[in-house]
Specification:
The structure is a homodimer. By secondary structure, the first copy, chain A, is α+β, with helices and mostly antiparallel strands. Chain A has helices at residues 4-10, 13-16, 20-29, 111-120, 122-148, 151-162, 174-181, 185-197, 213-220, and strands at 31-35, 40-42, 50-56, 59-64, 70-76, 81-82, 97-100, 104-110, 167-168, 201-204, 207-210. Helix content of chain A is 45%, strand content 23%. In chain A, strands 1-8-3-6 form a four-stranded antiparallel β-sheet. A four-stranded antiparallel β-sheet of chain A has the order 2-7-4-5. In chain A, strands 9-11-10 form a three-stranded antiparallel β-sheet. The radius of gyration of chain A is 20 Å and the shape is elongated. Chain A starts with a helix and ends with a helix. The interface between A and B is large, with 40 and 40 residues. Chain A binds a DNA duplex through helix 8.
DNA sequence: CGCACGCTACGACAAAAGTCAGGTTCACGT
DNA sequence: ACGTGAACCTGACTTTTGTCGTAGCGTGCG
């Protein structure tokens, strides 16, 4: 019983807690797929056919504007699910696009299978409630950011979030930051420089050093 | 059994579908309160003590910036609930402020009562899932609006949404629109005028007339 | 009637955000 | 070594957004 699919299921907290009986059922309907880096997993506006859970790799969830600008809603890693919202509303369309950041493996469930699973399993429905709740909070923060803060303020917040202590080690390109902050590369570049000029940051190859968390916190408002 | 509380419960779809037994339980723990127009119902950042359901009136849910600017997240009417999210996350703080728009009556449940109610009642938890799902979609749209559209575009979308056919009858002040659109009064004023100049709107006392829904749809992108 | 108040109009201005073009650096593969 | 492309820097420029002060206009009320 510890084949590929079982291992995959174990990496997904939402599903791994299910009863042995439900798991057995699940094995019959779950499908495993992999995507190359950059591959489109689903397109916003399409009818919702399935829900996804990431086994390995990362996926970026985003919206596109008519002009082609992006806004990232979330970047998800192993164990997290996406496109789990539309099954619960009457007209089920994918609310956002998703693409693989790195080589990414997912489990998919047809919408109907997912819904009936949730119906019979209170634990699962509770887990999804918690998931939705935290996503609502996250989106609310994002809305506040976009509506009430300048790019500079958003960038400061973003860096504070990303930083592990004083160091942001993950390599972010300005373009990536831009789509997270709801703006464009050039503007991120300027904002970064202006924070550097203000003595709040230092940029070295491959990482960013926060010289003053307090200073950045202050930039946060406005 | 058809006292005040029963009537109140009946106006709330989320709760009215509960079993007679659960309802009885509910009657013991639900509290009725009323708020004058403009009264603050809850303040963002405070520890979450209770969840709310509107019996009559309206409530505006919003976030405040350090500078005092607002962003409205939702305006809710009878039957709808708010502050229902924090009970599902580990550290429960009110995610937003709420104030009564008109004279407003609410039922409140202590967080713990609400949670145990959800735990024992699958119908309720399903209903909340649906509620959360539609709120996630709504917030996602809001994020796209704020990140990817100009004020002009947002205003166009807003008016199209508000309009019943070609007429927006509800009296919106520019200030109210501004807090919905994540901007300030002056800017809404300018955007309105520019849409009027473009021949897409006419403004009469007490209402706004959309002269061309197609034209406004076009303004929608950007 | 006259006054206060809320809402709006308008113009001038400042700041922020977005756009564009040219040039630099650096990693990578041939 | 060389070319290529991605990422980034830079400055100039436009547009959008935000801010301010002043003024008009209607409604309601003493």
């Amino acid at each position: 019983m510890d084949d590929q699919l079982s291992q995959d299921l174990n990496t997904i907290p939402l599903l791994s807690g299910l009863s042995a009986r439900t798991l057995l059922q699940l094995r019959g309907v779950a499908l495993r797929r992999t995507y190359a880096p950059g591959a489109l997993i689903l397109l916003e506006g399409d009818p919702c056919a399935a829900v996804f859970f990431i086994v390995s790799g990362q996926a970026r969830i985003y919206r596109l504007s008519p002009q082609g600008r992006q806004q990232v809603l979330a970047t998800l890693g192993p164990g997290q699910g996406f496109n789990t919202v539309p099954p619960f509303v009457p007209e089920a369309f994918n609310p956002a696009s998703a693409e693989a950041v790195s080589e990414t493996a997912v489990l998919t469930l047809r919408k109907e299978d997912f819904v009936s699973l949730v119906r019979v399993c209170p634990d699962l429905s509770w887990a999804i409630l918690e998931d939705f709740a935290s996503r609502l909070l996250h989106l609310t923060d994002l809305v506040e950011d976009l509506a009430l803060r300048s790019v500079r303020g958003r960038l400061a917040r973003f860096l504070l979030e990303q930083a592990d202590g004083l160091y942001v080690t993950r390599q972010w390109t300005q373009d990536e930051m831009a789509v997270h902050l709801g703006t464009v590369r050039d503007v991120v570049g300027r904002a970064l420089r202006s924070l550097v000029d203000a003595g709040l940051l230092r940029i070295e190859r491959g990482r960013i050093i926060l010289l003053s968390r307090e200073g950045l916190e202050a930039e946060t408002d406005s």
